[in-house]
Amino acid sequence: MTSFRAAAVAAMVVVALTLQLGLFPSLAIAGVVPDVVLLVVISLALSRGPEYAAVVGFLAGLLLDLAPPADHTAGRWALAFVVVAYLAGLARRDAPWSTGATVAVVAAGSFVGTSLFALSGLVLDDPGVTVSGVAAVVPLAVVYDLILTPFVVPVVLAVMRRLEPVAARFGTPGFAAGRA
User: Class assignment of domain 2-177?
Assistant: First the structure.
C-alpha cells in the first residue's frame, strides 16, 4: 500500500503541475495563476503531517522550479513549499479541524509560500521582482488560491483518506471530514 500511496501522491503532483503550467496560464490575472501544486502540498500536510508533507513539498517545488518555462533560480519554490508544508502540518496537529480552519490554513499557506518565493527573488536580485510588484501579486495569489480551494483540497483529502482508511476514522481534517 505504501508504494501505491507514493504513486498516487506523485500522480496528484504531476496532474497539479500540468494544470498549473498548461491550463491556468490562459486564466492568468495580472500574470498570476492559481498555485494548484501548493494546494496539493497543503492538502497532503493536512492529511499526513509536517514531515511527510515537507518531503513532498520539496520534491513538488523542485519539479515546479525545473519545469519549463521556469525563468527563476531553481530552488525558490522548493524552499517555499517545504516551509508551507511543514507549517501546515504543524497547524494540523495543534488545531481542532473544520472547514474554516482548513480555509485559514490554505490562506496562510498561500500567503507564506508566495511571499517566500517573492522575497527570495528580491534577495537573489531577480530582475523581474520588485517590492511594489510583490505587494500587488501576493494578495491576488491568495485570493486565486482560495477560489480554487474547494475544488482541490477535498479531492486530495478524499484520495488520501481512501488510501489510508484507518486515519479517516481518527479525524483526518478537511472539508470532506463532515465537520462544520
Answer: mainly alpha
